[in-house]
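# step 3/5: fold
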Amino acid sequence: AHLLQGENNLDGSKAGPLGIKAEQMVDAVWDYVLLEKEISDEVLNAHGLSREQLEALRSEFTYWYPMDLRVSGKDLIGNHLTFCMYNHCAIFPKDLWPKAMRTNGHMLINAEK
């Protein structure tokens, strides 16, 4: 995300370090970056993108994925963890699914949750 968004740009009003704007991130681009599907030079040219830009995004994605461990509180099983599993199973091939998930009870620090 930092390559697309950059610093101090939470609203996406400016292009990030790679100079890619939100409207350039069409489905074919996401498929190339996340699913390793091929993308034609025609699509790249039509959206003003270079193969080098997309290779940088793909490299960043493959560095972090699949995630080794997703940890969350027990109260988030019904939403965050469930949707994490559903989304990963729906979008990614099995080799990119999270390797493990763990929940913990409420932790107390100074006798407070």
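# step 4/5: annotate
The chain has a mean pLDDT of 91.
# step 5/5: archive (pending)
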